[in-house]
Amino acid sequence: MKITPQFTKSFFTTQLEVWPLASINYTILETALGNESEIIFENQSWIADKFVVSYRKGSLTADPKAALMGERPCFLCGKSRPSEQLKLEWNDYDILVNPYPISVPHFTIAHKEHIPQRIDGHISEMASMTSLFDNCGLFYNGPLCGASAPDHLHFQAFDLHNFKNLLPSLKNGTVIYRHGGSRIIVPASNLTAVPFILIDVAEDSDIPALFDRVVSALPSADPEPMMNIAAIRHESHTLIAVFPRHKHRPACYGSGEGQLLVSPATAEMLGTFPCASQKEFEALDEETIRKIYGEVCVNPEVFDEIIEKISQ
């Protein structure tokens, strides 16, 4: 069966009709989004959105080491999924409605096999997934950069509105590498609050080579360079943003006095901050977010080294 955006949209509606947990949580999210607050950054065209969804706490407190050590059942494997959770099959993946959403809709695309969360060899699949959903983009959380299931390869799709901070770089960024009609772009400093590299792909066959060029320039780490990835279709091109990371969580992370349950993943790198409680919602302002970004992202000197390697 060919999966189309219309089909996944209908699938989403059907899933909410038969799965009470998902239906309840999407209702909670819609209320939360109605009370969403924007933070417009000074001297940069960067907007952060924040809202409160209490069920977010489970993801924010997930211990990636426990998953990697096999100390909890894998909730993405078919045998562990709730009986109410339906699936669409696409190639080697199952498309699932995420029952703990941060956008409407929110899908998880899980590999049918229990293989580790690694992007190597799968970036073209991720790019192809952008054509399966209506008004959605894809994101990938690295195993050390926000993945709540680092033991099981998966991607997520959420509303295209959350990718708005990427597009200004297409017109005003600096092109550091060209391959045919495809380009690798570095955003101008007045466009972004986080360091990232934007791959503007004219021909999807160019994706592996361009992506490998970027990833090979990142600081090495085990099991893969620390990064978050976002992908969207824009007009006739595929856009892939790579966010190099320095660490998993900021120093303020925690639930104690003076601490915040903020554990940045791709959504936060894009400027979307789903908060576990009113405490985080009230604390997150431009200054706090900049400090968090400054701790979890690579510093300017390392980013300059990455850019130099890509442009050589």
3D structure, described in words:
This protein has a ten-stranded antiparallel beta sheet. β11 and β12 form a beta hairpin. The protein has 312 residues and is an alpha+beta fold.
The low-confidence parts are none
Which sequence of SSEs, written as H and E, runs from N to C? Answer: HHEEHHEEEHEEHEEEHEEHEHHH
Tally of contiguous helical segments: 11
Helicity, in percent? 25-40%
Termini separation comes to 44 Å
- Derived from helix and strand composition plus strand pairing, the structural class reads alpha+beta
- Can you tell me the overall shape? globular
Number of strands: 13
Rg over CA atoms: 18 Å
Query: Strand arrangement, largest sheet?
Result: 3-4-5-7-6-11-12-10-9-8
Mean pLDDT: 94
Largest sheet: 10 strands, antiparallel
Percent strand equals: 15-25%
